[in-house]
Amino acid sequence: MKKGNIIQVKSYDFAVKIVKLYKHLSQEKKEFVLSKQLLRSGTSIGANIEEARETHYWIRLLKDTGFLSKDTAQSFLNDVEEILKIIGSIQKTIRNS
C-alpha cells in the first residue's frame, strides 16, 4: 500500500469514528458547539490534512472541559497523533527526494 493510500484510509476511518463521537456527544451529553466543530474538523482531514492539528486541539478541549472521558479522549488523540506522524514522515521523504 502506498503512503498516500495509508493517509486516505486512516483519515477516512478517523472521520467515521468522529461522526459516531459527534452523535454520542450531541445525543447523550447534549453538547452541540464543541462537538459540531469537532465534526467539521475531524471529517475534513482527508480533504485538508492540516485539520488534524485542529482536531487534536478540540479533542483535548473536550477532555479538559469534561465532555470526554480521559480514556476516550486518549484513544482519539492516539489516532490523531498517528496520522500526524504519517504525514510528517511523508513530508520528510518528500523533502529528501
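That was protein one. Protein two is written in the same sequence-then-structure order:
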Amino acid sequence: MKNEKVIAIMKARGIRNSIIKSKMLEVFLEESTPINANHLHQKISSEIQVDLASVYRNLHLFKEKGILREVLGGSNESYFELATGEFPLHPHFWCHQCKQVSCLSPLSLEETLWLSSLAKKQKVRSIDLTLKGVCERCLLELERGSSI
C-alpha cells in the first residue's frame, strides 16, 4: 500500500521512480515531524547504498515538484515534510534546547489570507511560519532541574 502511494505521488508529478526516491518518500510517509537531510540519509542508508549528495538532489527535486515543503530550523538548517494535499500548510515550532522541529495546528483560510494581506502590493508565493523557543518536553526537563 505504501509503495503504491509513493509511486502515485511521483507519477502525478512526472517523476521517474527509482529505489532511492521511493525509499525517501516512504520515510516521509512514516515521519510525523519535518526531518533534515542527514536524518533521512541515515534512515535510508541502512537499507540501500546512497550518498548524501543524492539525498540532497532528490530533496530539491521533490521540493521543486511540490511534493515536499522546506522548513527552516533555528540555525537556518533545512527540514523537509510532505506538502501534498493531505498535508496542509501549517506553522512549525523549533526548540532551542533539543533542536527539534515540530508541527503546529494548520492555519485556517482566514489566517492564511490575513498573513498574505500583510504583503500589501507584493505577490505572495508561499508562507513559512516558524515559532522558536523551548518545547513542552524541554520545559518539563528544565523544571525538574535536569540538563538536556
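The first strand starts at residue 35 and ends at 36. Keep this in mind for the problem set.
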